[in-house]
């Protein structure tokens, strides 16, 4: 264990070297994920679900019968949005089992390797109509193995007392996410527009191979897996205080879901709204719809150094915002982001909307993300009991399962409500998160601090 700790403490620019390999792995994995995700609902609505194509998808008849038995009869848009929502949700549900597999048996490293292999196969399977549902299944299982465990590995690089450095480490890790999420939609979107959907999906598979290479190259810099019970040994049960801490962490994660509902809707109905309502033509060139999604991630990358500088300046004066304050700020910014789509709809009720409205929306959503998600991951990593740390990190992603499925359900109201009312609804949902922090945030923080106090 001493050798493992020494490797994890090798530093570059103040952080363990392993952080940068994990961030680069996540960057290429997110390239694949977001490149494919920004195409998905458009691909279904514009091509895959149309007569003459839908019949080619293995298992689609049975799948649609099951979905409509649960959610009722659905239009093409509603069925595509619900399918997207289920996919977007389940990629964050399966990490719960991936975290359990890592904590109890295989360790995070082995499970991440399995996840990379499954996701690579899934992305390549997206390149064919017949294997569409199989591709989604492989991607869901692969994400379950990878997501929570690679995020937990970031936290394992830091000691308990390095709370501020850990938060900044997760911000750097999230920048890797956003670099990949910026480039992925640009390249995959352009390839899909010029050469066809399947070429765009195939490119995502190629970059999962790069993610595998980067991860294997950085293995020696990662900390040893934690909390894996030796053979024949049972881990001690959680204490009463640990259970109380788990409850408080879960409460915070539930509050963050308000912002996540509005944020995730941008990749579902948001892509359809941009494609249908926004004037994307410039000098004879049509801007691919997924390029708008890239702006969100680009804004997150641009915002990171500025936010770190602001927080450092506030910290030197004893006033850096706490985790919950940052989460509330993100919720308010995301509410403003959704409001710009509502204003865009109001500006041209019967015509094309200026591209300026979605440009502002996706820029603000990227900043909102940086306030909320890295902060939430750092809070879970720091506060969750070590015995189930990877499992709790997976629990953070579990909230996005609920959000994904819920977003798909809410998307069915887009057509009957109209776009203006729909985006006002999203703004209100996100603002609710800020209100909840204002009401209960101080009490939650004090209780967490009391549970961690010595004695």
Automatic annotation (TrEMBL):
Domain of life from the UniProt record: Bacteria
Transmembrane segments: 84-102, 170-195, 201-222, 243-263, 297-315, 327-347, 353-373, 394-414, 420-441
Gene Ontology MF term list: peptide transmembrane transporter activity
First-listed, main subcellular location of the protein, grouped into a coarse class: membrane
Compartments, as annotated in UniProt: Cell membrane
Topological type in the membrane: Multi-pass membrane protein
Keywords: Cell membrane, Membrane, Transmembrane, Transmembrane helix, Transport
Keyword Ribonucleoprotein: no
Residue span, Major facilitator superfamily (MFS) profile domain: 40-445
NCBIfam families according to UniProt: yjdL_sub1_fam
Protein name: Peptide MFS transporter
CDD domains: MFS_DtpA_like
GO term, biological process aspect, one: peptide transport
GO cellular component: plasma membrane
